[in-house]
Amino acid sequence: MDKIHEIVFAGFGGQGILSMGKILAYAGLEEGYEVCWLPSYGPEMRGGTANCSVIISSRKILSPISTKYDCGILLNQPSMDKFESKIKSCGICIYEKAEIIKVTEREDINILGLSAFEEAQKMEVKQVANMIVLGALINNINIVKIESVLKALEDVLPARHHHLIPLNKKALLKGMELAEKEFIH
Amino acid sequence: MDKIHEIVFAGFGGQGILSMGKILAYAGLEEGYEVCWLPSYGPEMRGGTANCSVIISSRKILSPISTKYDCGILLNQPSMDKFESKIKSCGICIYEKAEIIKVTEREDINILGLSAFEEAQKMEVKQVANMIVLGALINNINIVKIESVLKALEDVLPARHHHLIPLNKKALLKGMELAEKEFIH
Amino acid sequence: MIRGTIKVDTEICKGCELCITACPQKSLGLSNNINSHGFKYVELIQDNCTGCINCALVCPDSAITVYRQSKNSIKQNKKVTV
Amino acid sequence: MIRGTIKVDTEICKGCELCITACPQKSLGLSNNINSHGFKYVELIQDNCTGCINCALVCPDSAITVYRQSKNSIKQNKKVTV
Amino acid sequence: MINKCEIEDLELVYEKPKTLTDTPMHYCPGCGHGVINKLIMEVIDELKIQDKTVGVAPVGCAVFEYRYMDIDMIEAPHGRASAVATGVKRVNPDKYVFSYQGDGDLAAIGTSETIHTVNRGENILMLFINNAIYGMTGGQMAPTTLIGQKTSTSPFGRSVKNNGFPLNITELISKLDGAFYVTRHSVHKPNSVRKLKKAIQKSFEYQKENKGTCFIEVISNCPAGWGMTPLKSNEWLEENLIPKYPLGDIKVPTKN
Amino acid sequence: MINKCEIEDLELVYEKPKTLTDTPMHYCPGCGHGVINKLIMEVIDELKIQDKTVGVAPVGCAVFEYRYMDIDMIEAPHGRASAVATGVKRVNPDKYVFSYQGDGDLAAIGTSETIHTVNRGENILMLFINNAIYGMTGGQMAPTTLIGQKTSTSPFGRSVKNNGFPLNITELISKLDGAFYVTRHSVHKPNSVRKLKKAIQKSFEYQKENKGTCFIEVISNCPAGWGMTPLKSNEWLEENLIPKYPLGDIKVPTKN
Amino acid sequence: MNMKYDNNVKLMKGNEALAEAAIRAEIDGYFGYPITPQSEILEYLSKNFNEEDGVVLQAESEIAAINMVYGAAGSGKRVMTSTSSPGMSLMLEGISYITAAQLPCLLVNVSRGGPGLGTIQPSQADYFQSTKGGGHGDYRLIVLAPNSVQEMADFVFDAIYLAEKYRNPALILSDGTLGQMMEKVRLPEKGSLPKSIPEWAAKGKIKNKERNIIYTSAVDPTVMENLNKELQNKYALLQQEVRYELSQIEDAEILIVAFGLSARICSKAQEMANDNGLSVGLLRPITLYPFPSDTIYKLAQKVQAILVVELSAGQMVEDVKLVVNGSCPVFFHGRMGGEVPTPDEIFFELKKITDKQAVKN
Amino acid sequence: MNMKYDNNVKLMKGNEALAEAAIRAEIDGYFGYPITPQSEILEYLSKNFNEEDGVVLQAESEIAAINMVYGAAGSGKRVMTSTSSPGMSLMLEGISYITAAQLPCLLVNVSRGGPGLGTIQPSQADYFQSTKGGGHGDYRLIVLAPNSVQEMADFVFDAIYLAEKYRNPALILSDGTLGQMMEKVRLPEKGSLPKSIPEWAAKGKIKNKERNIIYTSAVDPTVMENLNKELQNKYALLQQEVRYELSQIEDAEILIVAFGLSARICSKAQEMANDNGLSVGLLRPITLYPFPSDTIYKLAQKVQAILVVELSAGQMVEDVKLVVNGSCPVFFHGRMGGEVPTPDEIFFELKKITDKQAVKN
Ligand SMILES: Cc1ncc(C[n+]2csc(CCOP(=O)(O)OP(=O)(O)O)c2C)c(N)n1
Ligand SMILES: Cc1ncc(C[n+]2csc(CCOP(=O)(O)OP(=O)(O)O)c2C)c(N)n1
Ligand code: SF4
Ligand code: SF4
Ligand code: SF4
Ligand code: SF4
Ligand code: SF4
Ligand code: SF4
Ligand SMILES: [Mg+2]
Ligand SMILES: [Mg+2]
Q1: Rounded to whole angstroms, how far apart are CA atoms H142 and H129?
Q2: Maximal CA-CA distance, chain A
Q3: Which position has the higher pLDDT, D2 or G110?
Q4: Do both H24 and H158 map to the same domain?
Q5: How many whole angstroms from D48 Cα to the centroid of ligand 1?
Q6: What is the per-residue pLDDT across G86-102, written as a single tens digit (0 to 9) for each?
Q7: Which of D58, G29, G277, H298 is the most exposed place for a label (fewest CB within 10 A)?
Q8: Please, what is the angle between helix B129-140 and helix B165-181, to 10°?
Q9: Does position F243 have pLDDT exceeding 80, yes or no?
Q10: Cα separation of B51 and G201, whole Å?
Q11: pLDDT category, C34, cuts 50, 70, 90?
């Protein structure tokens, strides 16, 4: 059967939103899918929020613009407010507990709260929080393998940062682990 | 009956071509006709030749652009070459003898050669040569009265030159006189 | 010494730290909390503000309001509690 | 004195008289004739041209060509008829 | 946290000017635009000319400054603020008019308008915010970008060979007869902020007296475009930009 | 009439350059454009660079100079000759490139291109023909028109109040680092013609050596636009224009 | 508008009549840059506009001029500019802004042969640019096409009136011949077009009122879409202002559609044709935008064929075909680059069409 | 053209893919000025174009950029520029000159919501400007509308090929979304598009040959008319290069016509519709000029109705109506100012049309 996954990543500018999406898209490419990554761009990014959407599909991608998502990765309150209603029924909402006070009240979707920042701080590298989130995501939707994500990291990270890949791997695995443990309400 | 006269004035830049046409147009206005004065304009005037056309009509003027003329006032050779063929059959061609070597060979039009410059020099004011030509013209076509032309001069000449009107009148009359005398072949 | 104090609009502050550097008294520091835009904001960390307004002058977001012990109270040598 | 002469392309000359003013010898003047463009053109009016090229330099229409007695003939003191 | 204070006998000595709206600014943290926006409004507040002032907003990071300035404003096309301001002033000679432009706006695409506005001595205040980069569009090279400075369109550093030397447009326009008062400031220190405010005050007073063009360059930072923290950006500004664009008056009215 | 001479032993000492075509020029009698057109061609002739030169013609009275110059040429939109020349030179660094512009072209609509071409130090020769008027369009005011000078758009004389002071753009661009050689000439006297020719020669030589922008202003007349005879126009030029725009070098290469 | 006319009949160039009309329409400012064949407008105003009445400024370029207009119009004043084709191209960014900001002002294009530097002779090849928005984005200008010196003067008033009524720039699309030729003209009098500073103008914030901001941008595309909807609604309303002139359309078998100068030439051809037993009507769109679609559509149901004549490769003909929508054949005759057709030439086209239609019938 | 492709599949932004393709198409120069959403093109080239291969120059403005292109193209080199809507408006005078001078070059408009400063979101409201000549005079651009990152790359080659074949500038009309999004792309290889310095180029006069002059003006309008005729003949020839994409048009009852990004969105709506028992075909014009008139005309004879979808107030729809010429009803759905329709929205429009047609039949 055709596989199509539409995912939105949204949060503050500093949370690595755009690269999270890019890594997922590269991972999709790695596995031979059609992929499309679409960022929000321009001055709206100045003040604060950023978002991007990724489509991964086993056949030609028609519209590159998604209106409903299989999965929303929502890392701050404005993003939660903006995107919660755009998650498809039976879809997944992954959010950062440290940022979001008012969680979506929808009952037709799966909701996973993470403390990725806290976990990242425990790992002493704040920057890997987004990898933890990504780990949780790939654990929850059956699109790409962690190997492909690791391969994707090589593509996305500049060579001078390649030594960080093991660390990122650790974070990814942590995320997968959290996703297993955490309650999806 | 409707009266429509289409006249072209053409010659060197310095010969007062455009103002000759303007004066005639004003004279037409004076007598209540519809009039239209259309100059050639722009860089083509730089090097040398200038021309303008005047339409005087007892009813609304349709096209302001004439393609055939009742009368051509042609004051140099290039103008003769350019416009001789555009004079209507039975029309009039008035030219300056001092300038034109090769006169039109058409036999279906009335041709009047003038020595306006010579006459003007006799009057010791070179600038009135065009008034002599104009005099010859109004003598030959029955459109406007000399009084209207004199009135027109007031409109066209800046106030500071109004003292020249008597002189211009003299030139006009001289032109009319010449036109009487000169042979129209 | 003249005593002063400041108020920071914590929702407006973007945590740029320019005021911190501008303060001659080193009275300011970044909070550990973040506001709803995701920014850590500034707060008084010492009780030695003179109300010199330097911090407010350089604040790009006009997040700081500055107060100073009134001339009256200086004259009267009134105690001011902050 | 070096002898020279000029040729004017009378069809090209516009009778601006700049060359006349530029000529230190006052060798040039305006003809009474006009060319086919309606311009009076320039001509030599005196037999004292030195071939200094001043007139040609200032001519906007490059209407003037200048010749000068060859060094040879000066040396040999040959007579030159103009 | 010593942030709350409810003590008597405290006088308010500084607050944001009333002519500045409560809309949060969209500028990046630590960006100089915010300070400059505020200073203009402080002066307008103090001179009580809110009802007589028309501001012309740029295209650049300050494109939305009309949200913050509680005065009538016109948003100009990129580079044309001084022409727009000329239009306003010529048919409203009794109004105070200022334009506000970045270095891309005023010194690249708008060079012609800049030179001719000053040359005609239009009786307006031109504010020129030089942050040596195109902030708005994401950090491209500006005419004022320094040699060697890396930007997104000079990734290996600006080179003289390809892009020429940084353009000191303020020096240039100061040579024009229409320029009445030309001065260069910054906002990276409390004292520089104070000085800039004075310059703005003076400029509006000169405008009242129909003196001609007042031109204030402000050397400003762009933490986002330069890829630095706000603090680091101010250091870089002091060490690199100010030596190339020295602060101070460039042309002052001769007394008579 | 002493015009014909068929004597032996006469050497040809001056004739129109071979790179000038036989097409009669459309300029008004006595107009300086003709002399300048000719001089450029003389230099190109003498330097034997006809096959390596691309000229950029203006919009202005010299718009048809491509008819007279027997070299490859490009007619530029009004004001953009230096940008067009930049385009040619950048992709053909081995070619000689010059632009030719009037005061309306270079100092009004093309101000921005002028400043930035020079600022980048484009390795071209820019010729600037300043006749203090728009000749082509029938005698309107130019940025260089003198105070009090009457033109069709300043019928009561140019006023400072409305139009500002005459713009000395050559001084302005001479301040730019990219300007290598900046000089001002005229063609109203034989000797001034000689000097201009030397300046053009030098400029092409500098261009060969990749020195940067050479900029030559030529103070020229416009008998038609000024409403004067050619002779009178040259007098007026000497008495009025040259004092305001003094002849001579403005920036010369420092020897090293 | 309550037009009063001078009793004097004058002989004036189209450009001068337009300039004098602008003075009488009490403009506050003119900003422009010289270009043939319209420089007389700036020249006339430089000479005849009193300093007390307003400002005449020769800008350093067309771009500066249109942006001065933008600023001055934004402050609520009645202002204008004029140019010719290449200059118009340079103004298009500014015009797109002015339209987006919904500012009234008067634009004049005395157009000439293109493309490129072209010629200075008359042309109508800027029709697309004028009517469909040469600049970026979905905007429209109100476009009036005069065909006489009288209309060069009159339409200044009409254009300003419509511009102010709809808060949209209005363009007088003329050409080199109409600008340069002299005809009789009776000029409207001052006071025919009352003016006041509009509420929305940026001219100093009024106490206790919202400030006025003239702007054209939005971060959120929804806001921009709403502005666009407002514009589109306005353009729909504008359709009621459509104007055209009909001549001899009763029983016409062929309908000529032509505007401006070409309509003048066509009227001569029409006369020739009717004298020769053809029956030819003429519709002259006076407003090119809004376009007289309904009338053309109705006439298309009655006539055998339509001939569109333009000084271009064929631009308005597309709008005619669009409304005719196949109801009758639409033919085209055009001249380009500054050339102008003769009445004979058009008469010949008419005859060709009659012959063709005869064969068909 | 003999396209060879890289074996590598990459993930790239549309803007970057276009820039990389330009390098591989062996351009000699790029001249441009930053503007969102296309600044990545200049940025990518600044980083990745070797100095030996050509020049990348950030101009001081769009006007300078287009005139640098004019000069460089006039000297026979392969050059390009890119911009977005407001910048495009500023380039129009230059473009009119380039077209009149018959110079090949590549133009790119990654367009955004207008009018005015507008938004930076995708738009197709520059269709008129692109296809009917936004600048003055009768000229046309060759216009290609990509709808994927792959086509952003491919069309660089196609556009340059056509531009050089016809000596006419070619425009890639893209939009903010296509420029910003990343998709898989296989890049053409260097050498796919051979180049040589053309005969007519102004690059130094060759001995014993006529000099080459690049110019666009004439004193005599006859000369200008002849140039125009040459241009019109060329445009007639150009019709053979028309390109479009058809999907599911057999038995289609409704035909959607849409280009670029909106065609992508429509294809989703088409899928939804066909899944729901409607029978909807899609025609995507790839060349907007020349326009696929014949094919649309033929299809119009077969389908019940046509729906045109654009990111504008309705521009291409005029060209569709022009060719349909009344054969079937033409409906329109558009979004403006940077807004984009959803597939649901279009599906809804399709249903409305089916219902209407059902009532009629
Ligand atoms: C005609 C046009 N060209 C380009 C742009 C894109 N643009 C917007 S702002 C800007 C430059 C911003 O730099 P600057 O003026 O220095 O202001 P800053 O953001 O640095 O304050 C550019 C190129 C535009 N909006 N319009
Ligand atoms: C965009 C544009 N604007 C205006 C013009 C009209 N125009 C042609 S030449 C010119 C100015 C001529 O003056 P200048 O550059 O001083 O040259 P001159 O004729 O005096 O030698 C103008 C305004 C034009 N062709 N194009
Ligand atoms: S007012 Fe002065 S002392 Fe007090 S916090 Fe601000 S800078 Fe420091
Ligand atoms: S300067 Fe202002 S915004 Fe920056 S940290 Fe201080 S209070 Fe916050
Ligand atoms: S060459 Fe010298 S001397 Fe002879 S005519 Fe010319 S200027 Fe006079
Ligand atoms: S300078 Fe040349 S054009 Fe002028 S009068 Fe002398 S020869 Fe004739
Ligand atoms: S991009 Fe630069 S100039 Fe713009 S708001 Fe951010 S820091 Fe300020
Ligand atoms: S108008 Fe002036 S500049 Fe032009 S050719 Fe005539 S004299 Fe020379
Ligand atoms: Mg900047
Ligand atoms: Mg000039």
Answers
A1: 12
A2: 45
A3: G110
A4: yes
A5: 68
A6: 999 999 999 999 999 99
A7: G277
A8: 50
A9: yes
A10: 48
A11: confident
Q: Which of G1, G21, G28, G23 is nearest to G201 (CA)?
A: G28
Confidence of residue H268 (pLDDT cuts 50, 70, 90): very high
Q: Is the pLDDT of residue A185 over 80?
A: no
Q: Per residue in A137-169, pLDDT tens? A: 999 888 899 999 999 998 888 888 888 899 999
Assess if residue H211 is contained within a domain: no
Q: What is the pLDDT of residue B41?
A: 80
**Residues of chain G neighbouring F59 (CB-CB closer than 8 A):** 117
Confidence of residue B161 (pLDDT cuts 50, 70, 90): confident
**Residue G47 falls inside a structural domain:** yes
Q: Complex ipTM, two decimals?
A: 0.97
HSE, CB side, 13 Å, CA atoms: give it for residue B160.
0
pLDDT recorded at residue D70 = 80
Of H1, H21, H17, the C-alpha closest to H189 is H21
Same domain, G20 and G167: yes
Map out the domains of chain C as residue ranges. Answer: 4-72
Q: Do F35 and D7 touch (CB under 8 A)?
A: no
How many Å lie between the centroid of ligand 5 and the Cα of residue D51? 5
Does the beta carbon of E27 lie inside 6 Å of ligand 7? Answer: yes
Distance CA G261, CA G266 (A): 9
**Minimum mean pLDDT range among A90-104, E200-214, G232-246, H235-249:** A90-104
At residue C73, the pLDDT reads 67
Domains in chain G: how many in total?
2
Average pLDDT over residues E213-241: 98
Token duo for residue D11? 């069809």
Residue of C16, C36, C40, C41 for testing the chain A interface, max A β-carbons within 10 Å: C36
Spatial distance between the Cα atoms of H128 and H126, rounded to a whole number of angstroms: 6
Is the CB of E116 less than 8 angstroms away from the CB of F108? yes
The range of the structural domain enclosing residue G112 comes to 5-195+216-240
Contact state of E176 with F163 under an 8 Å Cβ cutoff: no
Nearest CA in chain G to H233: G313
Q: Is residue G211 part of a domain?
A: no
CATH number (domain holding residue G306) = 3.40.50.920
Name the closest ligand to CA H60: 1
Question: E122 with E96: CB under 8 angstroms?
Answer: no
The answer to whether domain A4-182 has CATH 3.40.920.10 is yes
Question: Is the CB of F40 within 6 Å of ligand 8?
Answer: no
Q: E104 to chain H: nearest residue by CA?
A: H60
F64 → chain B, closest CA residue: B43
Q: Is there an atom of ligand 3 within 6 Å of C29 CB?
A: no
| For the CA of E58, the nearest ligand | 1
Our answer on whether the CB atom of C30 is closer than 6 Å to any ligand 3 atom is: no
Judged against a pLDDT cut of 80, whether residue G358 lies above it is answered with no
Domain D4-72 class in CATH: alpha beta
Q: Give the pLDDT mean for F7-20.
A: 88
G346, two tokens: 């058009």
The rounded Å distance from CA H264 to ligand 8 centre is 58
Residues of G with CB under 8 A from a CB of E: 28-29, 31, 54-55, 57, 59-61, 63-65, 67-75, 77, 79, 93-94, 97, 101, 201-207, 211-217, 219
Summarised one tens digit per residue, pLDDT across range G111-124 is 999 999 999 999 99
Chains that touch F (3 or more CB pairs under 8 A): B, D, E, G, H
Count of pairs with CB atoms under 8 A, one residue in F, one in G: 50
For B160, the token pair is 């500071």
Residues H66-92 have pLDDT tens digits of 999 999 999 999 999 999 999 999 999
Q: B165: helix, coil or strand?
A: helix
Q: Enter the CATH code of domain F27-141+168-251.
A: 3.40.50.970
How much is the pTM? 0.97
